[in-house]
Specification:
Chain A: The chain crosses the membrane at residues 34-51. The complex is a heterodimer of chains A (845) and B (122). With 845 residues, chain A is α+β, with helices and mostly antiparallel strands. In chain A, the strands form six sheets. Chain A has an eleven-stranded mixed beta sheet with strand order 1-27-2-3-7-8-9-10-17-18-20, covered by helices on one side. In chain A, strands 4, 5, 21, 23, 24, 25 and 26 form a seven-stranded antiparallel beta sheet that branches. The chains are: A alpha+beta (845), B mainly alpha (122). The interface between A and B is large, with 47 and 50 residues.
């Protein structure tokens, strides 16, 4: 009877827990007291356990949502404390940190140790999680916190020797007392912050992933720099090129993949004299010649990661002093890859951007000099085909004898799973990334050839940080040249301007001395003649100072013309950005910071300028329908700029993409082996000068297509496609609408990134905005008695999504504007822009 | 009484103790002051529900709820108020269940009381 009665109370009691127990208690009363207690305690236990456990990607909910220690605590107040003093262990003296309106720290220390200690401390305050996750990724330790999903990424990084390379780099850094001091003080500063953390103020991502911040080590700094090498000098298409060579033979490969572009505008102006006697270059190996002869039968690189920099001399500027501009293109993320900072101590006062995880200012200026970078794209990563004696792989054939391999053990911790141990074989070249294709997961880049050894500049001992140490303190051209000699990888176009009225650019790094095309294809690892035989002397690196044209520039295009006596690579970025920059700079006079800012956001397309008239010639307007005719009219009125509101840009872009794809797809889209597709430049050459080339024929159709057929078919496909997706030509066809941009959080967390927004620009355009990659930092510096810097990056200083300084600079960046950078002379200098002051005091025990 | 005890002690200790300490507090206070299952459950539920709302809003209001909005989007919730409600609800359930368990454990060691008979008759 009571059972039925209780049942009716279900409806009256919304939260049934209490009712549930009284219900049971009535049924079997005598034994129930104990059972009820046990059951309720067990239920509570299960609830707490469930809230404490990580299920797949879902964080441990209890800790995350608890408002006293979970994410709610990461909400920062809009009211900042004006002045704060902290007592810190490990400082030698007092440090004053003044924060401006964008939360950029201006650090004033009394000695170098305290300077880098404070840099580590403030950077960790804003960017600890970013620093942790980036170095975890580089060091193959992601699975430790993310779980089995990240295992293949970790294996890849371990097997490519990232940790091995970082250990070698660290040895280099520790050999010089200057960089040793900086790295150790920087590390101590980070750890001072980490040690004072409680669960409550862990950065939100630690709470979300459910792990604890750990202490920083100098190896982490080395790993972070390896990550830069991986991004900028870790790609290769040797495998695709080798497949292409095997499929088409040497003659076709030579024709479609030439060592110099059809259109060039090299970084070192054509005709610049080389004032050195080159050292002898190694002879082309017999095995390489054989490889090029044998092919007698009848992942490509991503555009968009590149950068611009230029400097103009006083003769072209309004002030009579040089100006310098730089915008490195990288993947755009929250938090940003850059962190703005000013570092001041006796002997140094420098301003610009740093990389969270590394001491020093990386791109910036001081009172006398300014400098910046773009990537060189030198071939400093090669693959060697190995011949092992047997399946034990203990010996490999090289230089006419069997040589011993060594093994390096890599233990990868996996969250919730047993450790995974990798035994990586090392040869004198470097690691065997994958011994065979079964060892290689589909998740890793396809361009890693199984059964080969990797020779990579980033594995060698070096002390790149010393170059930054010296650049931060440089006062003239000679100091700049000296700093460059310490820099190894990833090779960069170091641009320079000084108050002493010098400008210069040097495609600089440690370059292996190679025979021509050495490393264009996978090399035969048995032939010692294929080894890197030595190095191009640093003094022979291409460079130019104060050229007659009054400016220097780079945009990842070829470093030199064909007269340079050494082989750096057979391919570089297309010439289009460099060409536009050089055209504009040549035409400009009375240049100001603002005119350079406008050039950084220039949307003019050299590609369209080069080929649009030719493409239009192939169209027969009488064969077009109404929509296609409307599109044609738009194109004819187009100003060749990829502006956000441009409709012509959308039509041309889509047309060009289709032309390119239709020319090459039938020949190069292969399910069996990844092939390298010919470059944009070679395609333009084909369209402009070889309209009868056999490549225009679609081999998959019985009929023979001509250049005109392909071009007009591509136009129809492009326009029809646009009409289908965005209806009639009009507002919906605007470039910024059909190709919106978005900046995501580093871990792609929904809500932690930006909304989609409309921007102009594209890869191959000076304003190189392409979806989620583009100008990660725009800087312009006016040299002179009063140096003035301007800059902005798309993000904010704080890495905390709960901070008002998480995205605050994005809008300025979107509008193509720059912030005037605050460059203080002393800690006491008055400025309205200083909002808060943090004083770090030595802890007295 | 039970409500006020749990409320005050949880609020006072939340910053220094881990999140699940609210369960221990609700449990212990209920052993001390729990009378009937319904009273225990709702006191624990209500106290923690409120404590969590107060602490969350204390941080979120000066933040213009910017972070709460981002986290709501992360979890696919339509707005931050719902996120606040879910937060408080989970806290409330833990608190309520813990107080209830505290009461039942206490009863194992108690002689049958007047109140229990009253309850049976209901």
């Amino acid at each position: 009877m009571p059972v039925v009665q209780s049942h009716s109370s279900v409806t009256t009691n919304k939260f049934g827990a209490a009712w549930l127990f009284s219900y049971i208690s009535i049924s079997v009363q005598p034994y129930m007291k104990i059972f009820r207690a046990l059951f309720s305690v067990a239920l509570l236990g299960v609830l707490i356990w469930a809230l404490q456990t990580k299920f797949g990607p879902v964080p441990p909910v209890g800790g995350f949502i608890n408002p006293a220690t979970g994410f709610w605590q990461n909400a920062e107040s809009k009211n900042l404390k004006n002045d704060e003093t902290l007592q810190l262990d490990g400082l030698q003296d007092e440090v004053i940190i003044r924060y401006d309106e964008n939360r950029v720290p201006h650090i004033f220390a009394k000695n170098e140790h305290d300077l880098y200690f404070a840099q580590g401390y403030v950077t960790a305050t804003d960017r600890l999680w970013q620093m942790d996750i980036q170095t975890r990724s580089a060091g193959g330790r992601l699975a430790e916190v993310v779980g089995p999903d990240a295992l293949e990424t970790d294996r890849y990084h371990r097997r490519t020797g990232m940790v091995y390379g970082a250990e070698n780099s660290l040895r280099g850094m520790m050999k010089d007392p200057r960089t040793k001091l900086a790295v150790e003080a920087y590390t101590a500063g980070i750890n001072q912050y980490v040690r004072n953390l409680t669960i409550r103020n862990y950065p939100i991502e630690f709470k979300l992933l459910g792990y604890k911040p750990e202490e920083w080590t100098p190896l982490n700094t080395a790993l972070l720099l390896k990550l830069m090498s991986e991004t900028l000098a870790g790609g290769s298409d040797d495998l695709e090129m080798t497949n292409t060579l095997n499929k088409f033979g040497a003659a076709v490969t030579k024709d479609l993949f030439p060592d110099h572009n059809y259109q060039e505008d090299p970084i070192i102006p054509t005709g610049t004299k080389w004032n050195f006697t080159p050292v002898p270059v190694p002879k082309t190996s017999e095995s390489f010649k054989a490889q090029m002869m044998s092919g007698n039968k009848p992942k490509a690189r991503v555009e968009g990661i590149g950068s611009n920099n230029w400097a103009v001399s006083g003769s072209k500027s309004a002030s009579g002093y040089p100006l310098l501009a730089n915008d490195p293109h990288l993947n755009l993320t929250f938090p940003s890859i850059w962190y703005q900072i000013q570092l001041t101590a006796p002997g140094v006062n420098v301003c610009g951007v740093s990389l969270p995880g590394s001491p020093y200012v990386i791109i910036g200026y001081n009172n006398k000099t300014s400098w910046g970078f773009t990537n060189v794209d030198a071939d400093v990563l090669d693959w060697y085909q190995l011949k092992f004696k047997d399946n034990t792989k203990n010996e490999y054939w090289y230089n006419n004898r069997w040589n011993k391999t060594t093994r390096r053990t890599e233990v990868i911790k996996v969250r919730g799973k047993p450790d995974v141990t990798e035994q990586v074989i090392y040869t004198h070249f470097g690691p065997v990334v994958y011994e065979d294709s079964t060892q290689k997961s589909r998740k890793v880049p396809v361009n890693v050839p199984a059964g080969t050894a990797l020779r990579w500049i980033a594995h060698d001992e070096s002390n790149d940080l010393l170059a930054f140490h010296l650049l931060n303190r440089g006062s003239n051209y000679d100091d700049y040249r000296k700093a460059l000699t310490y820099y190894s990888a990833p090779a960069q176009n170091f641009i320079f301007a000084s108050t002493g009225k010098d400008i210069a650019i040097t495609p600089n790094g440690r370059y292996p001395l190679k025979f021509k095309e050495q490393g264009k294809f996978i090399l035969d690892g048995t032939d010692a003649a294929n080894d890197w035989q030595g190095w191009i002397p640093a003094a022979h690196n291409p460079t130019v100072k104060n050229p007659p044209r009054g400016f220097v520039s780079s945009a990842n295009q070829s470093s030199t013309d064909a007269t340079y006596p050494y082989y750096l690579n057979w391919q570089f970025g297309n010439y289009n950005r460099g060409k536009r920059i050089n055209n504009r700079l040549a035409a400009m006079s009375n240049i100001t910071a603002d005119s350079l800012r406008l050039l950084q956001t220039d949307n003019y397309s050299i590609t369209a300028h080069d080929i649009l008239p030719t493409l239009l010639n192939y169209l027969d307007p009488t064969k077009l329908d109404a929509t296609q005719r409307a599109a044609l009219t738009e194109l004819k009125q187009w100003n060749l700029c990829y502006d956000a509101t441009s409709i012509g840009a959308s039509i041309f872009n889509s047309w060009w993409v289709n032309v390119y794809s239709m020319i090459w797809k039938d020949d190069f889209d292969s399910p069996n082996a990844d092939l390298r597709w010919p470059s944009r430049d070679r395609t333009i050459q084909l369209l402009l000068t070889q309209p009868k080339a056999k490549w225009f024929d679609d081999v998959k159709t019985p009929s023979v297509e001509t250049c005109a057929d392909i071009v007009s078919e591509a136009f129809n496909v492009a326009v029809n496609d646009l009409a289908k997706k965005h209806s009639k030509p009009g507002k919906g066809w605007q470039w910024g609408t059909i190709r919106p941009s978005k900046i995501d959080h580093m871990a792609n967390l929904p809500g932690f990134g930006s909304q989609e927004f409309s921007t102009g620009g594209n890869s191959g355009i000076v304003n190189a905005m392409s979806g989620g990659a583009g100008p990660s930092w725009r800087m312009v510096v006016e040299m002179g008695p009063q140096v003035k810097g301007y800059g902005v990056y798309p993000g904010g200083q704080s890495g905390n999504p709960g901070s008002f300084y998480y995205t605050n600079m994005l809008q300025t960046w979107k509008e193509g504007k720059l912030n005037e950078l605050l460059f203080l002379k002393s800690a006491g200098e008055k400025s309205e822009r200083i909002k808060t002051t943090l004083t770090l005091k030595k802890d007295r025990h | 009484m039970l409500f006020i005890l749990i409320f005050i002690i949880s609020l006072a200790t939340s910053y220094v103790l881990p999140w699940w300490a609210v369960a221990a507090i609700a449990f212990a206070m209920s052993v001390y002051a729990g009378t009937r299952p319904r009273q225990a459950f709702w006191s624990g539920f209500g106290a923690i529900f409120l404590v969590w709302i107060i602490i969350a809003l204390f941080k979120s209001i000066p933040n213009n709820h910017m972070l709460a909005k981002r986290v709501a989007e992360l979890f696919g919730l339509p707005n931050w108020l719902l996120l606040l409600f879910v937060t408080a609800l989970i806290g409330g359930l833990v608190g309520g269940l813990a107080a209830l368990a505290g009461l039942y454990v206490k009863r194992v060691f108690e002689k049958p009381s007047e109140s229990e008979f009253t309850e049976l008759k209901n």
